[in-house]
Amino acid sequence: METRNTEHIISVLKTVPSLQGLSDDELKLIEPLFTQKTFHSGDFIIVEGTQGNTMYIINRGAVLVTKSDRKGEQVSLGVLNDGAFFGELSLFDNLPRSATVTAIEETSIFMLTRTDLDNVFSSNLEIANRMYRNTLIEIFSRFRKRLSSFTFSQYYLREKNEILSRINRDLSTAQEIQQYFINTEPGKHKYKGVKHTFIYQPSEAIGGDFINVFTAGNRIYMIIADVQGHGITAALVTGVLKSAFVMLVKECGDDPVLFLSKLNNHLYEVINSIYATCYYTIIDTAEKKVIFAKAGHHQPFFWNSEKGNFRTISAKGPGLGIVDDPVYSITEVPYNEGDKLLFFTDGIIEQRNTDGEMYCSERLSKAFKSTILSGKKNILDSLLLNLHDFAGNVEYEDDITMLLYEF
Predict the structure, then answer these.
(1) What does the pLDDT look like over 262-302, one tens digit per residue?
(2) Which CATH architecture has domain 6-139?
């Protein structure tokens, strides 16, 4: 059995808030009441939620203090070593233990029970009054700290709620602005025998895809773009592309190579750390042809109604914002009545199902062909439903955008 160090115990008692102000003689009346016990590593000394009436002082060793979180998992509050004390308020209240204390090595502890302390109080009213007064002061002190912390937390939460409200308002505004980014000239879904429809479904509140259609004379100018990533950053880049498109399509829209070159250089100079892919096309309704220019985007599906298969589109060119002064080219393809042209972004073909399998362009082309041959009128809705059935419960990883021309 370990030698009892009376002076050591008294020096620790002087640090206990409830015993502040007691003289050495008074502390010597309390010290003998402490009994000594040894706990082995892993032994519970206090269990959260249980009733207790004992104060503990660590003579030698170490203990771990933990508390359950809302999920019932144990969260560490710290380690106590030689000379530390805990459980002192249980000498005066009947509340359940607020934490669990476990020995993490062989630990010698001195313990004082409320019953033994009451025996001292019965014969020494002055000690009792002083200790009850100190305990009351300590309880109010802890209450004030918790109240202060709670008040600050409330203020902090209100501040965060206000910030979140502003963010939500900003996102709402951003969504409205992004509708401007995907403007396809409402009211002109059919222009000189060419009908267009589109679907835009961002994976977040706002996304990185955008489409724009501009008509002038016998020509329809169209761009579909997919910015790297999604969310707010990608949406900001779509704003850069949108503003550039509006300016450049009027300046050099009839020259797709020059148009893409200037659009690329604009993005490269303004934001050279993020790239985008796009397809730019001109539909010439007088000559009944489509002029294609590609910047790293997926080839569209061009349905030839006369032959009942897809035309091959061979436009080439690197994505936007990757290199300075890239080389682009054009491809011209005639169209006939009944033909259909489908543009899409990679959020569709790269979407996975519960097995981790990608939807892929081949599956999209088959669904597109099947929908056309079945005579369904709402082609894009059918394609989106096909994608939904494939993905199942898997969340969409990227923005979904499709643009369909029907001649």
Answers:
(1) 988 888 887 767 788 889 999 999 999 999 999 988 899 99
(2) Sandwich (2.60)
